[in-house]
Amino acid sequence: MQKETGPGDNDRENLLVALKRAQEKQGYIKDEFVTELADSLNVGIAEAYGVATFYSFLSKKPLGRNVIRVCRSLPCYLEDSRMIVKTISDELGISPGETTPDARFSLELTNCIGACDQAPAMLVNHDLHGNLTPEKISQILKEYK
Amino acid sequence: MAEERVVLKNCGVIDPGNISTFLEQDGFRALEKARKEMSPEQVIEEIKASGLRGRGGAGFPCGLKWEMARQAPGDSKYVICNADEGEVGTFKDRHILQNDPFTLIEGIVLAAYAIGAEQAYIYLREEYHYLLELVQGAINQAREKGLLGAVNIDVREGAGAYVCGEESALMESIEGKRGEVRYKPPFPPTSGLWAQPTTINNVETLMNVPRIILNGASWFNQMGTERSQGTKVFSVSGDVAWPGVYELVMGSQLSELVVGLAGAEKVKMVQIGGATGRIIPSSMLDTPLSFESILGAGAITVFNESRDTMEIVYRTMEFLAEESCGKCTPCREGTEVMVNIMEAFYRGEARESDIGLLEELSRVMAVSALCGLGQAAPIPVTDTLQYFRSDYEERIKQKQSGAVK
């Protein structure tokens, strides 16, 4: 029988795990959630808020249903990652840091995603897309509703 | 060519989703050998004798780390595998996890046997969430076959933070906290995760362990140089014809890798070890890749003659400023100031005094920052000032003559 592997619900170490779950479910982390979580784990609100704002994949503002993260680190930059941002901006009408009015997409820039051999690359939600061209990007965007 | 497949031996050979294909090779034989024929102390001795050093960049002797953790008093001990490769230009661990998660698991269980741990963690970066299913599947298969014994392996995911690849920040993150660096000492082997004795090893380091146990330390340490035994796995990207993952015997020349294997042409400079790595000019392509020389975690980014030095350093510094955890002042503020100065150089708005300012700031950060990130953050600046100083001076002159774009 498999041993129970995750931290218990009320353990201090559950803070980041719980924040990640909330992010996954609700698309962002609400202030009220941070307060309640801090209370249930018996940690200070400041500490819980500190964790919620430390990590780049946790967001304090609402994101779209699909989050595009374009790699802006050097290896992708050398392969013209600016083209990705421009193509997506033209197609969706949003700049990095913005969300489409229908909440279908958010566009973010991110640091190295470890796909430099497939540069330029981006993540859409948890999916990796590499060797991007404008045509490929248009096709990919259609896959996400 | 000094290509040699030690770490990548099974990549492309086995089915990473099916443990039977791994067992058909020599999968889990090293663990079987260790359990039947070797005491934990003998495993540690073998690793020490092999000369295996940490592949995450720091190069600490693996056997020594394990010995310290084994001997340290503690209620429970932990093994952590650092799969948080966030260094710019690094993707070798992704390649390994995608192609051979089983050897890694065998290495983790061997580490646990050696130090006396029953709990191990793989800290996987959030950016690699798409690998979680495969890695978890591999763990489950090994468990079902009874190969893990009493060792429990959990995967803990990051949430997007470069600094969490630093071992103390990584432990903070597993404990559910902000990924801020800890003051050292104490070091993890005596006081690590939840203040218990802990070993933290890079994916690639642990991949070497089963090979060493099965084939013996003397098989391993005949490869490489005097102080860098074995092979190194490199991630090559940038201005090359064939970006990808390559494994070479330690001490191989940089040119073998970037020109011979990856097909680079008209090289201007090579950044070795990512954002905080060394930058060397094309005249030094005969540099050997080893701990004695230059190595890092094996990220190799190639820039050709069309690239602007100022822009490369500016963008590198921008990355470091953003990823600084903010705990210590030299790194938090120093990287910000460097971004501003490098932006001025990039835009042709820098003054002559800025070079002196960069040099002074670099010296202060190198000696006063809390962790490796801050201490090494000035390297892109100091290396380019050493090898490409004229590029800085040129940009200042262009400003004076009004020739800047």
Write a brief structural summary:
The complex is a heterodimer of chains A (145) and B (405). By secondary structure, chain A is α+β, with helices and mostly antiparallel strands. Chain A has helices at residues 14-26, 31-41, 45-52, 74-78, 81-92, 134-142; strands spanning 66-71, 105-110, 122-124, 127-129.
Total number of beta strands of chain A: 4
Instruction: List SSEs of chain B in N-to-C order.
Output: HHHHEHHEHEHEHHEEHEEEHHHHHH
Work out the number of β strands of chain B: 9
- Portion of residues in helices of chain A? 40-55%
What is the CATH H-level superfamily of the largest domain in chain B? Answer: NADH-ubiquinone oxidoreductase 51kDa subunit
Compute the CA-based radius of gyration of chain A: 18 Å
CATH third-level topology of the largest domain in chain A? Glutaredoxin
Overall tally of domains of chain B: 3
Main beta sheet of chain A, described? 4 strands, mixed
Largest interface: A-B, 40 and 51 residues
CATH superfamily descriptor of the largest domain in chain A: Glutaredoxin
Q: What CATH first level of the largest domain in chain B would be assigned?
A: Alpha Beta
Strand order of the largest sheet of chain A: 2-1-3-4
Q: What class, by secondary structure content of chain B? A: alpha/beta
Unreliable spans of chain A are: 1-6
Quaternary:
heterodimer
Give the percentage of residues in beta strands of chain B: 5-15%
What key phrases describe this protein's structure?
heterodimer, A: 145 residues, alpha+beta, Arc Repressor Mutant, subunit A, Glutaredoxin, 2 domains, 4-stranded mixed sheet, 4 strands, 12% strand, elongated, disordered N terminus, B: 405 residues, alpha/beta, Rossmann fold, Ubiquitin-like (UB roll), de novo design (two linked rop proteins), 3 domains, 4-stranded parallel sheet, 45% helix, globular
